[in-house]
Amino acid sequence: MKERAPTILVCHLLLLLAATGQAEDLSIEKQKTWLAPSPETQLYIEGLDDRKGMGRIFVPAMTSGASEPLYAVFQGGELIGEQNTGSSFFVKPGRYTVVLGTGTLDQRIRREVDIKREETVFVHPDWCALTVEVIDEVRNYYKQDLQIFRIESLESYGLISAINPELGEHLQTLILRPGLYKIVRRGEDINTYVNFTTLLLEPGSYTPYTIVSNSETGDFIGAGILASRTQLRQRRNWSIYGALHGNVIVTAANSVSSDKVKTNLSLISQLDNRLLYDKFPHYNLASNLLELGALRQEGAKFQINQDRLRLKNTYVYYLLHWLGGYTRLEATTHLFETTYRFDNRRNVTFLDLSGQTIAVENNVDEVRMEPVLYPLELKEGFGVNVTPIKTFIAHLNLRTGLGYWQTYNKDVFRQDSEHDTLFHRIPDNFPQGLETALISNLSLLKNLSVTTEIDVLFPFTKDNQITLDMENFITLRVTKNVAIEHTLRLKRSAELTHTLQEQFVSVRLSYFLF
What we know:
- There is one protein chain.
- The protein folds into three domains: 53-125, Immunoglobulin-like (Sandwich); 128-234, Immunoglobulins (Immunoglobulin-like); 237-512, Porin (Beta Barrel).
- The radius of gyration is 30 Å and the shape is elongated.
- It has helices at 5-31, 39-46, 227-235; strands at residues 55-59, 71-75, 78-83, 87-91, 94-100, 109-115, 120-122, 128-135, 146-150, 155-160, 174-176, 179-185, 196-201, 206-213, 220-224, 238-257, 260-279, 282-296, 302-320, 323-333, 338-351, 357-370, 376-390, 394-408, 413-415, 422-425, 432-445, 448-459, 467-477, 482-492, 500-512.
- The strands form six sheets. It has a twelve-stranded antiparallel barrel. A four-stranded antiparallel sheet has the order 3-2-5-6, with no helix packed on it.
- The protein contains three helices and 31 strands.
- By secondary structure, the protein is mostly beta strands.
């Protein structure tokens, strides 16, 4: 037996080394589920030098420090301070307790660390990260708060608040101990047998969980990890949205004069695409909206009556989560000629900028007022971005800064408000001044929302009037893919003789592309 003792000892050491190697491999494998890079890479990106005579505690983030709960550092029961995950905490040499996680103080994760001079101690991430998003059958974000329980102890670990990422809201990451958890609707008991889902959280891993709810009843109809959500980990901070909408519209517009309103029935389709990059402090939203509509008046063929292409890009660099600087670029145009059709044939006259006759057309039943692409409107601006209200029910974003707007009116004519056979050429317009924008969203009920966008330019020169663009949308969701929407648009600029008002009441059918 004495001769075999060294052999047994060597075997035990080899097994211990093998187990340690497997644990390290397992940890590296789990890190592949993270949205954040490896702990070593996070420390390198942070780029902070050691402080002389001090030690460093580093708690890595699995998703992002802005989305995860703060971690706290205690010494002898005294709170030393708090810090975001993925960030360093410098302390004097000694023994400390690191507390992190979701839930009450007793439910959180505790780790004891010994710190030496100019030493960096990584807190090994053997906890779990979890995000839960709620969507409906057509992948719209659904407003439903949840509650999460740990099955082993039957304890509640708090609420999971619903969010809308399209309003700039972020999924909050829960940091939990490994184990089996149960998620129910807010207010439900842990013992409920309906509208619940369970999931097993493994140590060192991030789980992007999705719950699908019925858009009319709120009942759970699906839950799990979607393939599309795991692919999002590869894109990390990128998200993409695409939808095709079809509308039946009743239109009321005073496009000829301020007191003459015409009402028509038309069909319109919209192609709406958005690409978002969101990683604090960077936020960039690129979007395009193509609207095409056809009108059929009594006794006439279908003609294009709605034609707009809008491209927008907004970049915000956040100094704080509610304050930052922005720059933006926007272009608005159309793809088809715009014509005015008479009820009977007329003789029409075209006037130049000085009011002189440049052309006369006899016995015509329609007049071309706008060529392809014109008017072409461009907007550039930069300034300060403030988000004073950011809740689930209400979201308000304010921007103010310097604006440079251009409207190119090549061969664009407007009908005279008093003589319908006179058409005036419209000049180009290049106002510059102080721009202010307001973007708000208000969710009044489960299926009713109001979205408002107001864009105003106050010119530097007194001879230019204030330019206004406003859009207001009131949307009532009837079913999962049908909604009734009222749209109000107001426009005021130098080339218009009055404030242009357009209203659309539509029944919208939606199909989501991705």
